[in-house]
Amino acid sequence: MNVLVIGAAGHTGRLAVSSLAENIQHHVKAMVRKTDQMREMEKLGAKPVLADLEQDFSYAINDVNAIIFAAGSGSSTGHDKTIAVDRDGAIKAVNLAVQHGITRFIMLSSMGADRPDAASEFIRHYLEAKYAADAHLMKSGLNYTIVRPGCLTNDSPSGKVAAAVQIADRTGTISRADVAEVLVQCLLVHETEGRIFEIVSGDVPIGEALRQI
């Protein structure tokens, strides 16, 4: 499978690129914004493409079968940047996938994106952007998976998660490495197709947890 990772230079995106590149079933294209990030992607085993979500990036979509959208402005950025990247950038990526006939789209969202109105004012604009992007993907006709992790950490991967449509413990955390592996495994686990689910650290191996959703 030829996979484009959008947001490949981010923490989670980089880990997803690395995992994909280790799998002989996948050929990886890594979308980055800066020229100095291209060399790193090559070292990871990916084909880098220089493009910006806030500009025209239609050329980056060529020759791929699936997209993993792992880009994000971060919850601490200003409203304008969050709208430009997390909402509008994601929506543009979905539209381009439709135009190019790409059927598989994996979206990295966030726990709480289903109810942004219930979030604190500090993070509400971020979750509102994620909500809009998720809703657009669901209506696009693409074969989608929307992954909503709990609070992200830089801990070492455990390879085990808890996955459900809604996780009871809203305070759960998960390592970026485990999130990246979930995104990658969604490409091959058919039970995740057309599904939205939340993930936190748990005690079930990732592949098994995804098949049980």
TrEMBL record:
Xref: Pfam families: NAD_binding_10
InterPro entries: NAD(P)-bd_dom, NAD(P)-bd_dom_sf
Superkingdom classification of source: Bacteria
Residues covered by the NAD(P)-binding domain: 7-187
Protein name: NAD-dependent dehydratase
